């Protein structure tokens, strides 16, 4: 079961119920009842690189976040969202493509799994809605974007792929909500 930290539980017991108890005792009881905190510490990087990248593109965009015409430059990223049903934590993933010309969302897909199909479907939808588009396609080095099949899909559509360097997540800032 997930809830507040043992320190917060101790503070609530004292503040709202007048029960003065040692935090080690609350921690011991929480462990016995399998109560864990929902608070997580963030990892040191904002982008996890693929363990075995099959393809790595050059950073052609090079932080030039302006475009002179529609469908000239597209940014993409996958974002993880958390939500709760009762005390149970769930995740959903949003894959989106943004046109740098007018900051319009070209395509997006929401799924409960972060896999290659999520990104492939996002690109397929973007190409269906923008026939003939051949933008510079910029992403991080996530496992979906370094996949050889994904690169082939872009090449077959006449799209040039560009990738940020590892741990340079501020490039995805323009896409974040």
UniProtKB/TrEMBL annotation:
Integrase catalytic domain: residues covered = 66-177
Identify the species of origin: Mediterraneibacter gnavus
The processes (GO biological process) annotated in the record are: DNA integration
List the signal peptide residues.
none
**Name this protein carries in UniProt:** DDE-type integrase/transposase/recombinase
Q: Which PANTHER family match?
A: TRANSPOSASE INSF FOR INSERTION SEQUENCE IS3B-RELATED, TRANSPOSASE INSO FOR INSERTION SEQUENCE ELEMENT IS911B-RELATED
Q: What does this protein do?
A: Involved in the transposition of the insertion sequence.
InterPro entries attached to this UniProt entry = HTH-like_dom, Integrase_cat-core, RNaseH-like_sf, RNaseH_sf, Transposase_IS3/IS150/IS904
Matches recorded under Pfam families: HTH_21 (PF13276), rve (PF00665)
Recorded GO molecular functions are: nucleic acid binding
Superkingdom in the source lineage: Bacteria
